[in-house]
Amino acid sequence: MKKKDSNKPNDETLSGPTGMLHPEKPLAEDEKDLSLRPRSLKEFMGQTQIKENLSVFITAARERNESLDHLFLIGPPGLGKTTLAQVVANELGAEFKVTSAPALDKPKDLAGILTTVTEKTVFFIDEIHRLKPAIEEMLYIAMEDYELDWIIGQGPSARTIRIPIQPFTLVGATTKAGNVSSPLVGRFGITCRFSFYEAADMEAIVRRSAGILNTKVDNDAAALLARSARGTPRVVNRLLRRMRDFAQIKGEPSITLPVVEDGLRRLEIDPLGLEKHDREILRIIIERYNGGPVGAETLAISIGESVDTLEDYYEPYLIQAGLIQRTPRGRVVTAMAYEHLKLEPRNGKIAGQVEGLLF
Length: 359
Ligand code: ADP
Known about the structure:
Layout: H1 28-32, H2 48-64, E1 71-74, H3 81-92, E2 96-100, H4 107-114, E3 122-126, H5 133-145, E4 147-152, E5 159-164, E6 169-174, H6 182-185, E7 190-193, H7 199-212, H8 219-227, H9 233-250, H10 257-266, H11 276-289, H12 296-303, H13 307-320, E8 324-327, E9 330-333, H14 335-341, H15 351-354
Parallel strand pairs: 1-6, 1-7, 2-3, 3-6
Antiparallel strand pairs: 4-5, 8-9
Helix pairs in contact: 7-8, 7-9, 8-10, 9-10, 12-13
């Protein structure tokens, strides 16, 4: 089994309360828990529309004995893009190869992989919005013609030869679809947009993972965990492991509702599934920027995170939870954010309304 994306930081320092849910950064224990990863479409919970369509495309490709069309996966970290790519490979009975765009530094890095793919291999490139232009150009021809353009020699005697490669399926994943060039987007035949998981699907994931980890979870405890994990399977699996620790230390034979309630309090996760850092973001927009609008870069500096982390990880969930909105002039908090933090808007007015922006 190949290790997932060796280029992503495996930062154990994030296991403190503030960063523990940070699903964009797989922790060492996520890597260990490969057993939790669904292996088939049947085991892959939620995302029903995506699964139904893919199932048709996979069956059709198998019947024609062809490789599956290239697949573009869009969505926040931890929602199952890598998992789904692996599932597709399993369903096709094909080999699976993984890399990420930052690991492809030179054309030879890509050529090294593509010249070794076997027929119908599913080749997964994470963070595809970060491909270098020279690599992207090489990929165009590989995706379209299953050939590689290779330059031999240097200077005036240099010439390009075309090397045939096996038909393969590229799966490109991104958190930032807007940053992927349109020629590349145009070469994907299938696009899947992931949404945050519904509570019922999250509960099903808790139960499945608990079964694999050989841990008992009470129904009400599973429901609360499912609601507190920002609709993200990677987060719910991490929370489940932490609750298993709490239950074990308390000498409880199963994860009960009081264990989860107490555990979430200790991890500073509130009923909306927000971490301390999420609440700090809201508080900073309210207290320093009078509710907004505030630009992403200014906000990122204020919270001590990169713009990428703000936009890829924190914002999508805060937006989905109805706590902030993106407007052309920056981010604004909504009335719900004031309510959630139990703060009063200054002058009795909310920034977005003062500025005449949408709410
Ligand atoms: P991404 O590539 O989008 O960052 P991953 O594919 O690495 O996310 O998923 C993170 C973890 O969440 C996986 O290891 C897997 O255990 C779990 N997971 C993801 N999607 C599902 C799903 N649909 N059903 C059950 N577990 C899932």
